[in-house]
Write a structure and sequence with these properties.
This protein is mainly alpha-helical. The chain has nine helices and four strands; from the N terminus they run βαβαββααααααα. About 70% of the residues lie in helices and about 5% in strands. A hairpin with a 3-residue loop joins strand 3 and strand 4. The chain is globular. The N and C termini lie far apart (about 65 Å).
Length: about 280
């Protein structure tokens, strides 16, 4: 194995290092000629994380069945359209699972050698959370989970085709569009937060947050940004293989890709929940 200086490292095509996992990967200077990362290796590890996510979903279903007779502790409205009834044990466990996933995500980002473990725990927690949304929050609308999955597969397939065909690249124009969307979303979030703190503007902010059309538009923009981040991920994976990163970094590449795919799935599921809730309300 040889090590290159940072100056001699070819410039990566990632977009503002949007994916925090792949951002760390882009700074790697190690190279290997005999045991380098491969597309097949990254694909296998990506599949592994997806299978672990499925295991997390199954675990949530088992917990749901085991706690079916627990007394209701709290009932929470989701989007003012879906009611979520929870026992105290379910609430505590759900919070603990989300917390573990968040901590493992952070550790995996900053300590890449832990990803085989932290990535596994993260995938488990995300699977549990997804199943919680689909089979607990969306009671009677569980089919939305399958619809979100099919749409996620379609989005990933389309973005992969666009990237592999060269129709979409991480060039200057692409980066400009993506940066504009990111900055616009951040600015809107900051303005909304500040406006909610000012008595004179608070009613307007609340009215905007309750506007169905605006909420859908913002979610669509968020989904577009997430889909565009896939281009960055594919570009970084190309670099990982073509520049000869050691095989151990296949874990980081796979974890980073799964991170984005799950994000896209949750964005799509959120959109479907809002549409279903609107129809239900009407």
């Amino acid at each position: 194995m040889s090590t290159l200086t940072r100056e001699s490292k070819p410039k990566t095509r990632t977009l503002f290092h949007s994916n925090p996992v792949l951002s760390r990967l882009s700074k790697i200077t190690e190279r290997s000629e005999t045991n380098a990362a491969t597309y097949a290796g990254i694909a296998r590890k990506t599949l592994y994380f997806l299978v672990i996510t499925l295991v997390g979903m199954i675990a949530q279903l088992l917990v749901k069945a085991a706690m079916a007779n627990e007394p209701v502790w709290q009932t929470v409205q989701i989007y003012e359209k879906f009611a979520l009834s929870l026992s105290k044990k379910e609430a505590i466990l759900a919070i603990a699972v989300v917390a573990v996933g968040f901590v493992c995500e952070l550790v995996g980002i900053f300590v890449s050698k832990t990803i085989p473990v932290t990535g596994t725990l993260y995938a488990l927690s995300q699977g549990y959370f997804i199943s919680f949304l689909v089979f607990k929050v969306l009671t009677g609308y569980e089919y939305l989970g399958l619809e979100a999955l099919l749409l996620t597969v379609a989005v990933v397939a389309v973005m992969s085709l666009l990237y592999s065909s060269g129709l979409v690249k991480g060039g200057k124009k692409f980066r400009t569009v993506l940066l504009s969307l990111i900055l616009g979303s951040v600015l809107l979030g900051v303005l909304s937060f500040v406006g909610s703190l000012i008595p004179a503007t608070r009613p307007y902010v609340q009215a905007m947050s309750q506007n169905f059309g605006l909420s859908i538009a913002l979610d669509v923009v968020g989904l577009v940004i997430a889909a565009m981040f896939l281009i960055s991920d594919f570009s970084m994976i190309d670099d990982c293989v073509n520049l000869g990163y050691p095989k151990k970094y296949e874990w980081s590449a796979a974890f980073g890709l799964v991170f984005t795919v799950i994000w896209i799935y949750l964005k799509i599921l959120d959109l479907l929940m809002q549409f279903a809730g609107k129809n239900n309300k009407d």
